[in-house]
Amino acid sequence: PNNFREISSQKNIYSNKIQEVQVENQIEINDALKNRYLLALDYIFNKKTETLYVLKQQQLKDKLALLGHQVFDEDFEIKEVIESEEDLLAANLKIIQLRKIKKDLEDYLKKVLALNTVKIETTNLISPEQIINFPISDSILNEYLFVTLQKLKINTLENEMNLSVAKSNQLLDFVQAKYIGKSENLFEDNLSIGLGINLPFFGAARQDKSEFYFEKTIKQNSLNDALIKHQLKVSIAKNEFETSIVNYVVLKKQSENSSVSSIYDAYQKMDGVSPLLLLKLKILQNKKNIEILKFEHELFKAYIEYLSLNEQLFQQPLVNYLSPGLDLLNN
Asked: What CA–CA distance (Å, rounded) separates 94 from 289?
């Protein structure tokens, strides 16, 4: 029969295997959510960028039309026409590229999410200001999932070794007795006894132990290395998040303090101001908006990456970290 040590080891192995699967699922959910968030952000900001470039395209067309009316003016410069045409060509190519990316993203999202059409909210998003003030902890409440998983695997290894030792210590498997006939002499009765014996192979056990300790040492060293690397990744993600905040805030403040908007507002109220001058100011404003949007996208991505590495995305109940009110996700 199985001894207590063998039964206990078998139960522990079974329990660990179940927990390993549960932790692996949590890791997969966290990674899957991160990838979906990043895909959604790429799609959202691609559409927003396309909108700004379509506006730029129209502005440049209007500019070329106004320049065409000045061809015979004394101060007309052909250089400005050439530069505007080059800018328009670049804008056209950018729009083609953005639309290609949008289609690729839509096709991929349809495949991943099993949808016929992609409907992603592009306006009702968490604001950059909310992200900047979002309370992201520097450390997690419990240990990292991959640490828990590796500890479970080491514990499983220990129990497998205990099971191997327990099996090697079994001395007697079965006893068979056979009695045939009776003799006048008690000691001459036809009696045979068969013993089924598993001898304890101590040499094999020692070899198993040696292999076990070697494998355990490798796993522990691997765990320590992985923990150091992960902490470094978290530190880098934190720095990138903080850098993205600084970049966005600085550029946004520069735009708000820029004289372009105030000049445009003032010129609009004045009579006799050149429409071309007003249009140039609008083109400049749109250029700044494109730059701000780029840094805003970087801010959103850094925010999700940091949440993912801190293992917040999979925590129950699941939260939509892109919604203004951090609404619960529909399971």
From this structure: 16
